[in-house]
Input
Amino acid sequence: MSAPAGLPPRPSAGAAAYAGGPAEVAAPQAGALRRHNGPVQSPMQFPSGYGLHPPNYSVLSGRYSQVPNKAVSPHLDNQYRASYHSTYYSAPAQNVMTPSVATNVLNTQESQQLYNKTSPQTAGSTEGLTQGAISSASYLHTSAQQSYSAFGNHYSTSVSSSVASQGFPLNSDHYTMPVVSSAMYPTVSYPSAAIDSVYGQVYTSQSLPDVGQFKQTNTFSSQSTAVPHSLQQHVPVGYNSTLPTVSSAQSVQDSLSRNLTGSLTKANNQISTGGIDSLQPVQSVSQKAQFTKPGVGTAASSAATSSMRTPAPGLSPEPRSTPSFTQSPESALQEAIDSSSTTSSASPVLNNYDALEGGGYPETRSVTSSPVPAPSVPQPSKTSKPFGYGYPALQPGYQNATPPAPVQPSNPGHHPGFQHYQQQYPGVNQLSSSLGGLSLQHSQQPESLRPVNLTQDRNILPVSSLPAPVPNLNSDLRKLNCSPDSFRCTLTNVPQTQALLNKAKLPLGLLLHPFRDLTQLPVITSSTIVRCRSCRTYINPFVSFIDQRRWKCNLCYRVNDVPEEFMYNPLTRSYGEPHKRPEVQNSTVEFIASSDYMLRPPQPAVYLFVLDVSHNAVEAGYLTIVCQSLLENLDKLPGDSRTRIGFITFDSTVQFYNLQEGLSQPQMLIVSDIDDIFLPTPDSLLVNLHESKELIKDLLNALPNMFTNTRETHSALGPALQAAFKLMSPTGGRISVFQTQLPSLGAGLLHSREDPNQRSSTTVVQHLGPATDFYKKLALDCSGQQTAVDLFLLSSQYSDLASLACMSKYSAGCIYYYPSFHHIHNPAQAEKLQKDLKRYLTRKIGFEAVMRIRCTKGLSIHTFHGNFFVRSTDLLSLANINPDAGFAVQMSIEESLTDTSLVCFQTALLYTSSKGERRIRVHTLCLPVVNSLADVYAGADVQAVVCLLANMAVDRSVSSSLADARDALVNAVMDSLEAYMSTASNLQQSVLVAPNSLKLFPLYVLALLKQKAFRTGTSTRLDDRVYAMCQMKSQPLVHLMKMIHPNMYRIDKLIDESAIHVNDKVVPQPPIQKLSAEKLTREGAFLMDCGSIFYIWIGKNCNNNFIKDVLGYPNYASVPQKMTQLPEADALSSERTRSFISWLRDSRPLSPVLQVIKDENPAKTDFFQHLIEDRTEAAFSYYEFLLQIQQQICK
Amino acid sequence: MESVVFIFSLIDCCALIFLAVYFIITLSDLECDYINARSCCSKLNKWVVPELIGHAIVTVLMLISLHWFIFLLNLPVATWNIYRFIMVPSGNMGVFDPTEIHNRGQLKSHMKEAMIKLGFHLLCFFMYLYSMILALIND
Output
């Protein structure tokens, strides 16, 4: 119905227009031309062009609002004018009614009013059309001009100021709190004639979110309505002005770190000769110190410290105790902290220093990282405690992201290995990477291959959570490699041939978390983004430079030229060092893309909420929570001044809300013709958030009470979605659907398919797939128009999630499910909804995204897992991307990798930020290739393997059957263990032995088999099962592992031994317990961390002191059944417990719900079903499972 | 009469050959990223039923005209076509589903299938041609 043919400046509709994939829009030549002509085009300026000329901007917004108008008005003319108008006057068969929101009564006056409102539009539609055309044309014209003039104006300034990614200062606590890039190059202008490449870049630096900054933010937000886009351009200036306040507080550290860098420089100068590359970074650090005066200390120290990440990630780079830095846990939690904050420019420093001093990593780090407590820092390599006492001000998130012991204590061969390498390659140029890998084969990790007798060794769980295996690369590459939190491979030693892979019986695949919240991310503004000319790979740390002017792609091995401006290094302000550029020093970088990467102007943030208001929904009472959350977070919604928002409600009809600025109150427009849905007033339904804020607030306040007396039980979800799609298709954006029951009317209606008697069937589980292709088609349509659909299903009965989930699965949305939701009867779910919504509304979001995964020639991807639409062989189309989305891919080895020693994988995620910037986030992972089976096992990453297997099993159970999937899981363990045992010939055949790297494999697979998704024999509702499957497909590894194998801790006797310190709080570290009832003693209290929920189980004879202090009740009997919070008591045990729980909470974006469980509690079964090592009536215990495997193998 | 049967079969077979070639071209376009999965699948799904009917007609025609050998030759392919069409899961958008086609090597298996069919139809084409000439001579 919406005739997209009429949309002017936008190059046709989404799917077709994007077919090539914007990531792949190849126009380096164009970029180069422009560059040589003079003005450097940086996307930073592109928006600022609008910003500096407010009239222009208004034209822009005019265009956007005109689009729907134009699109639909012909339609109104053709089809509806007759009916529309006539039905108006002939009241009996009213198609469109307009009770005003407040009165909720239809009377003639009001319909009159509506008529008045609508008629000018319909009658004057032709006029509107021409106007629209004119304005959009003029927009095109002027914008083109403007942008060029902007380039002209800013040519000099373009050098400056990229705001380090994450922190958009404007944006509420979620965005402001994170360590916002600080040490900026203040808008510096380089004389253009002399230097070809102008380059603004901020990286490695962490800023302090101080008061001044907030002030700045405020002023900007107030400005932002008037001068929308100039904002970002100016931010750095603001920073500079505010920074001095900080620097004074940090003067000690400043001087310390300055001295430090100075000494480092000297050290380097002494040992390295002039030509050696590794010398330069030092200069870069110190140079920076001169450059940005106020932030020197922080920049330099963090630059120096953060580089030392890989081998021993447990240390925090900043022990600052600046008051401003103690983040509130809430906001700190928003950032899953990245341990890979490589300031790679400093990394060679480490090497040399290291070599010079002859010390191991931890030592150097302790010197560099924390100027204040440095001497007292225990060396992690020598102590068995994961975290020492010496780090008083660890960032909570940082700690959590890298919880395990930095260097496995049980790995003595590790350190000598390092030193050995350093001696062997003292000044190794890490850029000759392909060479580097070669020499690694001999350094085995004997630890990961140590045979473990599974049936005898009962305590195989690690004390704290399991670390990701470190690829067996040389130390330089290892430091440069991508963080395992964002990018993980199931086999960190990639087998050379498919035959070897088949022999190992382990799946080869990648687990991605590409849009993870990062605290530190180098953001690069450059007019040319250097990419391989044949495979379009972005330049990365693992390419090799043949000489100064040429580099060899590490994926396709093509030799490319280094562009002229890449020769200039903005960090050191020196020429002729392409390998020192940040792109080549960091495996995770973000580029700000030029207009070559856009097919249309970056879209604004558009949010549409589609709410179920049928009787069932009103009964459940979710509307209050949703409206309340929205009201609270309205200002924190990511976006800029163009942000738009709209609401649709539906029962058996679809209600739209006119929120056009200027109305005295929101207007409800009811469309009852659900078979042929149309938009009553297309241009006033999605309104600018800032202009119509009052109306939106009115609506949100009124909405929960508007439908209290409804008798409507039907739900016309399909038509409401169609309407939502029509509303969104001109711009794209996010649709959030709240549904409480089975859709029963109109297109996409569903019937109940679940047979309750089959819930605990052991043989057949049917209806795991969708019943209709309506939702899939809708999702693909939405995806084509860059719209994602997020589903919140809050239902008490069967709602056919298998069908409904399709709308999110293929449009890159996300799915939330709240079984038996009720705002009063089920407070835990209500609280969960509240928390989820808070995160959902405020988290970062990327629009119109595409992701491409490239890998070294010889490897190919054959299956993708996650929520997206695969547009071509390696291109995923993601209408929206959010930081909680995970992806997995399965790979196969098509050509043998004999002629290479390293393989690389690169994901590039191109998206539009909520501020309307086009950005590309690139992750690159490098892994060694091995040719022996033992090496393959040594490098197996059991968590990644299990997560990939879970994804594969979900596919299998939908396409084949659940029983097949379960068999496949068991076979996966059996085959791989059998293959391992056959390689290790000296083992007894009768015992079940696994390599140390895979010792948890059987346990995890058993846990998978007992998951809701795959269990049989235990009563499982179909929706629960399907939801668990959806989660497996779309959760990133960290969250999925918690779901599969929760961590259990005993918390009644928390002691300070081996505790860690976070923000001056002592966080005890109890060991992880086996998930078995044998560990549950009646005298104890246990905490189970299932990712999205915490259970606290209290034993019957639990110490009364604990109950009194921690729970706040006199004795066991008086503890209530539904308890979801711990009181704040002064007692030490209470403090410890709470600090431990909040520490666990901080490690994840979603704040989990707490549930206290007593013995008689009905929720007890929920708790006990997670004790996966125990036997249930339908499933084996862990020991039995092992015996079964052993029998099968020895047969 | 017999010649009419074979002339018809020949024409039908030509159509099926063209269809098979069209399938191969479209799939390889998808493989090379010239078109996107959505349009590829909607293009191909349109022709699944015509292909099925076209082939079923020849098969039935051979049964009616009592050409047992040719009938038995055609039967497995016709059965496979029908089986494939019936077994499409309810949530899929046809035999070719844009959301699945890039997964689990489906694209390759579709390609292989189209190739095999092309070969089969070429074989049939010459067989019909021979039979037609024979029938015409006999007449």
Q: What stands out?
A: The interface with chain A takes residues 30-31, 33, 35-39, 89-93, 98-99, 101-105, 107 of chain B (CB under 8 Å). Chain B has a mean pLDDT of 88. The two ends of chain B are 9 Å apart (CA to CA).
